[in-house]
């Protein structure tokens, strides 16, 4: 079980991803996660971090201001957490197993949900549609979480403006918008004022599908914002809620306008003397069918198998020990520390990529950071097979997103766009389709921390790596000892 976004200072053992910070909890077994939440306020969430189990095992983790403190905005009358989920009419574990067997892309989901309910636009589900009550004039807080597996989502409330006040448990400089876009893993807190004629309005979410020609679930999930003073409907009948106009599925302009609106509330201490200047490509790949393999195992495009990588390394989890155990106990042979700081070969990342660069190398490669070192990381999307937006999540850290853009990152041109004054602090960055994002952080939390695409289909294919952050000198700069009930493999 992972608490997504909780920094877990020195308590990496409580982070949760299987084979990274712990072995999985066996059926019937138990493990008590012990950790402290410090300096974070807003909305995070928890989810299973084993295969695709998080499809149905997740929930909100809400951190309110300390007793006696208040929000840095008008106190909302009510608060509602809205968890956007993804549903298969099948066991999601069977869906991913089939994909791993055949080498093809997994089936897309059959529905999206809001707090577990698909809503009125699907067959037979309208009697359980989530109702969010409001009173005319009041201002409420919606805590929106994309807990879906594989799809970025647009989110709207018909006829209502949304004021964004926080994201990933950090406050932001408030801005007003009619539409949100969240990648899986991201959270957005918004204020909504009930200033419209008292009736019923749909709250709706549907795909932002940035990959050209790739199949996706094109359905729409809804809940209902219901004014309590709405006139009583005639017997039995219900007033049909007003439906918002959703952005087109491929509306990258709207997604970009949203993601580039984020600022920290005030000037923030962005690291400037950079110890590690890193450049990671993030993208898909296609492996040729292994010699002698049955064609039924190579059902990817043109008889291949799907894969994915960062810097041409396709990440493989260990199976006997967690990476954190192997690191802390010095167990050899579990991982190597040769994850490259730069792509092994430079190429036109977002152009027409030569087929010879489509097959990454599998491995369990980590990148080592010393305690307290500063990192700048350029996340560069590739157009291998297809360009696509990637929600990249770093465990154990928040980072500043100092710039994003399209095409290949160009240091001489693009460093001038860096926001070193008030960039947003996040735990998951939306790397634009066919583009890049630049993040910065200080390695102040010792342990082993996964960096991965939060589309579970991509992590399955290997779109991940991990940072090994060494201990500092004092006890407060050192990973705690593992708990006695830490599961064994
Ligand atoms: Cu939301 Cu690796 O996790």
TrEMBL record:
Query: Where in the cell does this protein reside?
Result: Secreted, Extracellular space, Apoplast
- Which top-level group of life is the source organism from? Eukaryota
UniProt xrefs under SUPFAM superfamilies: Cupredoxins
How many cofactor units bind, and how?
Binds 4 Cu cations per monomer.
Q: Write down the Pfam families for this protein, in alphabetical order.
A: Cu-oxidase, Cu-oxidase_2, Cu-oxidase_3
- Protein keywords: Apoplast, Copper, Glycoprotein, Lignin degradation, Metal-binding, Oxidoreductase, Repeat, Secreted
Q: Which CDD domains match?
A: CuRO_2_LCC_plant (cd13875), CuRO_3_LCC_plant (cd13897)
* Cofactor(s) named in the record: Cu cation
Domain Plastocyanin-like stretches: 1-67, 79-229, 338-471
Q: Which family does it belong to?
A: Belongs to the multicopper oxidase family.
What this protein is called in its record is Laccase
Origin species: Rehmannia glutinosa (Chinese foxglove)
């Amino acid at each position: 079980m992972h608490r997504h976004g909780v920094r877990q200072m020195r308590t990496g053992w409580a982070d949760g991803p299987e084979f990274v910070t712990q072995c999985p909890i066996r059926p019937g077994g138990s493990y008590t996660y012990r950790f402290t939440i410090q300096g974070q306020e807003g909305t995070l969430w928890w989810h299973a971090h084993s295969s695709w189990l998080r499809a149905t095992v997740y929930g909100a983790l809400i951190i309110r201001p300390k007793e006696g403190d208040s929000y840095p905005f008008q106190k909302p009358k009510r608060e509602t957490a809205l968890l956007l989920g993804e549903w298969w009419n099948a066991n999601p574990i069977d869906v991913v197993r089939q994909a791993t067997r055949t080498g093809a892309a997994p089936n897309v989901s059959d529905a999206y949900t809001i707090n577990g309910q698909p809503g009125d636009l699907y067959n037979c589900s309208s009697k359980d549609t989530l109702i969010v009550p409001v009173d005319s004039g009041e201002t409420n807080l919606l805590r929106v979480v994309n807990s879906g597996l594989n799809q970025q989502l647009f989110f709207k409330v018909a006829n209502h403006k949304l004021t964004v006040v926080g994201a990933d448990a950090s406050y932001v400089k408030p801005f007003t918008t009619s539409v949100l876009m969240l990648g899986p893993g991201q959270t957005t807190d918004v204020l909504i004022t009930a200033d419209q004629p008292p009736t019923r309005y749909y709250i709706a979410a549907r795909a932002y599908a940035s990959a050209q020609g790739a199949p996706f679930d094109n359905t729409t999930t809804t809940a209902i914002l219901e004014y309590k003073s709405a006139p009583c409907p005639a017997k039995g009948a219900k007033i049909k809620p007003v439906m918002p106009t959703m952005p087109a599925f491929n509306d990258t302009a709207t997604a970009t306008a949203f993601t580039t609106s984020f600022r920290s509330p005030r000037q923030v201490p962005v690291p400037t003397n950079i110890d590690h200047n890193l450049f990671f490509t993030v993208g898909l790949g296609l492996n040729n069918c292994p010699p002698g393999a049955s064609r039924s195992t190579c059902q990817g495009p043109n008889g291949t198998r799907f894969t994915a990588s960062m810097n041409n390394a396709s990440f493989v989890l260990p199976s006997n020990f967690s990476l954190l155990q192997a690191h802390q106990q010095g167990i050899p042979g579990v991982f190597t520390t040769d994850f490259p700081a730069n792509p092994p070969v430079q190429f036109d990342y977002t152009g027409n990529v030569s087929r010879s660069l489509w097959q990454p190398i599998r491995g369990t490669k980590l990148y080592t950071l010393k305690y307290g070192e500063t990192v700048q990381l350029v996340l560069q999307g590739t157009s291998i097979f297809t360009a696509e937006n990637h929600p990249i999540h770093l465990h154990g850290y928040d980072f500043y997103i100092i710039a994003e853009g399209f095409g290949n990152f160009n240091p001489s041109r693009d460093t001038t766009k860096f926001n070193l004054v008030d960039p947003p602090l996040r735990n998951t960055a939306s790397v634009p389709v066919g583009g890049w994002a630049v993040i910065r952080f200080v390695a102040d939390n010792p342990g082993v921390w996964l960096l991965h695409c939060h589309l579970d289909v991509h992590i399955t294919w290997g779109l991940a790596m991990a940072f090994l952050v060494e201990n500092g000198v004092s006890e407060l700069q050192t990973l705690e000892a593992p708990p006695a009930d830490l599961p064994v493999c």
